[in-house]
Amino acid sequence: MRIANPIYDVVFKYLLDDEKVAKLLLSALLGQEVLELDGRATEVRHEANPSLLVLRLDFAATVRLEDGSSKLVLIELQKAHNPVDVLRFRKYLGSQYADRNNIVADSAGRAHGLPIVTVYFLGEGLELTTAPVVRVGRHYTDAATGEHLQIAEPFVEALTHDCIVVQINRLKDRRRTELERLLMVFDQGLAERADPHHLEVLEEEYPERYREVLRRLLRAIAEKKVRDGMDVEDDYLATLLDKDRLLADQARTLEAQAQTLEAQASALEEKDRLIEALKRRAKPR
I want to staple 46 with a disulfide (CB 3.0 to 4.6 A). Which of 15, 18, 52, 95 is the partner? Predict the structure, then answer.
């Protein structure tokens, strides 16, 4: 089956715009059934070119789980992984902690911050693990006894958060669990060589209860707005790569010039020393 490549922001947004698909994906990632979903995606315009829309996608969803609790899920799709991204993630996360829309009242009327779970889809992945999906969870521990406390204290839940990291570059040929088979649609090893906008996925290898994800990505191909968005993103990324190459070339040129100037300065210093030595020899005794 030929499907749109969800590594593209515009396709990823199209995927999550379908509530049923978003529930399936979030339930699998969280390991808990999502019963209700109130999602909102934010499209960020590039400062240098405001006409470019979907260059970074932040997706926030308030979900109600099977146990009756609610959580705020923040999702980021990021194709690069560098310190700048980390700072941006922290800034966005901080804005969500501070957002009064993420404050809810309990049955007694007391205000509590929604517990937050962050989900990061990283193209470049992490440095110290090859696990395709990494879940980072909190544990309550009695510091005196080391006993694990089976609690979820609202104060702690509102100020700390769990995290899920999907390493897209580690998904290749990893099909050990149902979750990994679901995430097969992000495996860039399945991208067509002639057109990376598309992936070739064998439907019979995909978990049957998640096949609505495949169908949604199949429909994405027929959407002109989605196809145009992928072209725009390609152009933008190509511009960024050209800019990076230019900056790298300039840096190498400046480094070479600095080395040349340093060598010239050293030569001048050596020349000055030789002149001083000749002067001393020429002085009458």
Answer: 52
Same domain (yes/no): 9, 45: yes
Q: Which helix (H) or strand (E) holds 103?
A: strand 103-105
Contact criterion met (CB below 8 Å) for 18 and 36: no
**Cα gap 89→45, rounded to integer Å:** 16
Mean pLDDT of the chain: 85
Buried b (16+ CB within 10 A) or exposed e, 177-197: eebbbbbbbbbeebeeeeeeb
Residue 196 and residue 238 in one domain: no
* Total-model pTM: 0.77
Could you tell me if 188 and 80 lie in one domain?
yes
Q: Are residues 238 and 114 in the same domain?
A: no
| The CA-based dihedral angle spanning residues 168, 171, 177, 178, taken in that order and rounded to the nearest 10 degrees | 60
Q: Which domain holds residue 200?
A: 2-222
Burial 72-99, CB ≥16 within 10 A → b, else e:
bbbbbbbbebeeebeeebeebbeebeee
* Domain stops at, among 181, 207, 222: 222
Q: Are 75 and 59 in contact (CB under 8 A)?
A: yes
Tens digits of residue pLDDT in 76-96: 887 765 666 788 888 888 988
142, 253: one domain? no
Q: What is the pLDDT of residue 109?
A: 83
- Count the domains in the chain: 2
Helix axes 9-16 and 211-221, enclosed angle (nearest 10): 130
Distance CA 183, CA 189 (A): 12
- DSSP-derived 3-state class of residue 214: helix
